[in-house]
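Researcher: We're teaching a course module on how sequence relates to structure. For the next exercise, students receive a sequence and then see the predicted structure as tokens, so they can try to spot secondary structure elements on their own. Here is the exercise chain.
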Amino acid sequence: MLFKRGRRIGVECKRVDAPMLTPSMRIALADLKLDKLYVVYPGEKRCTLAKKVEVLPLPNWSMQR
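Model: And here is the predicted structure for the students to work with:
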């Protein structure tokens, strides 16, 4: 967990081509009261898995938001 401008940010790394929302991600969002969860993976596309969960390609990983 990271703190950025007063927000709680979670980061999870995956070694899969198409990350999916997992029960552990939902638990982390709730238990840690995360404002955002970034899932970093070795793929090429950036996408949103859920309201607070964003998938980021490893080569482009940046928490600019």
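Model: If you want an answer key for the exercise: The chain has one domain: 2-60. The helical segments are 23-31.
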